[in-house]
Design a protein that fits this description.
nine-stranded antiparallel beta sheet, alpha+beta, single chain, 25% helix
């Protein structure tokens, strides 16, 4: 397995990198200046709806490409870049850094309180009888009392793993595909760094986040499923 291997049949459906910072009124008042810098590529504008009990300033505007492959979410205390057509980390990171460079120059943000890199994977599966064949796809060994069978009809796991520089939240649960034709396993990684962070170190933060999520994904998937992702088996 290569360090930066891109799988032919990768289950990744969405990638998001987000930074959060203390609320900055200039972001709310001069959002149009940012849009002018990106509108040639991110031409669609999606305005948030009012939600009872929530401040509108905290609800992000979306600027999206016409084909929906990439988008930006911008609010008074955060900005994120999302991707629904992932061509590898290098390509994604280049776009993130370009957009955040524009943002940084416009609003002079220095301090951050959180960064997050999220990967959402959707793995189609077919039940064996009524059982989810989790062991075909993921290396998960749960030590359960002997009275509890390990053949699961349903499963919902959330665990948070601490690393030296942050933490990664992993969610594993079954769902139904959007077209309601296929059961899927949702495999969701969210790596977060929190505390007194520096805008000028975003390059370092996103690299670190990718390293930990990539390593976890590679350790978690089975060799059987890896062959399917490579297109070696059908």
């Amino acid at each position: 397995m290569g360090k930066n291997e891109i799988y032919k049949n990768a289950p990744l459906v969405e990638t998001v990198f987000e930074i959060r910072f203390p609320g900055e009124p200039a972001v709310e008042c001069k959002r149009d200046r940012f849009y002018e810098k990106v509108r040639d590529v991110y031409s669609k504008v999606l305005v948030p709806r009012a939600v009872e009990g929530k401040a509108m300033a905290l609800e992000p505007y979306k600027f999206e490409r016409e084909d929906g492959t990439y988008g930006i979410m911008l609010a008074i205390n955060k900005i994120s870049v999302y991707c629904k057509k992932y061509d590898g980390f290098k390509v994604f990171k280049e776009e993130v850094m370009k957009l955040l460079s524009i943002f940084g120059e416009l609003f002079n943000i220095k301090k951050l309180n959180r960064t997050g890199l999220r990967y959402i994977n959707i793995i189609p599966f077919i039940r064996e009888g009524e059982i989810i064949p989790l062991n075909h796809y993921l290396n998960i060994n749960l030590k359960l009392p002997s009275a509890i069978p390990s053949d699961f009809k349903n499963i919902n796991i959330i665990f948070v793993s601490q690393t030296e520089g942050g933490s990664v939240t992993t969610r594993i649960e079954p769902a139904i595909s959007q077209d309601c034709t296929q059961e899927v396993i949702i495999l969701d990684f969210d790596y977060a760094k929190e505390g007194d962070l520096n805008f000028n170190l975003i390059d370092k933060y996103i690299e670190e986040s990718h390293y930990h999520t990539k390593h976890l994904f590679e350790e978690l998937i089975t060799e059987e499923y890896r062959k399917l992702m490579r297109g070696e088996v059908v």
